[in-house]
Amino acid sequence: MYDIIIVGAGPAGLTSSIYARRAMKKTLVLEALSYGGQIINTLSIDNYPANPNISGFDFATRLYNQAKDLGAEIKFEKVTEIMDSEGFKEVVTTKGSYKTKTIIIATGSENRKLGIPRELELTGKGISYCATCDGAFYKGKDVAVVGGGNTALEDALYLTDVAKTVYLIHRRDEFRGEEALVNALKNKNNIKFIYNSNVTKLNGDNRLESIEISGNDGSKKEILVSGLFVAVGRIPENENFRNVINLDESGYIIASEDCHTNVPGIFVAGDNRVKDVRQLVTAASDGAIAATEAIKFINNR
Ligand code: NAP
Question: What is the total count of domains within the chain?
Answer without folding.
Answer: 2
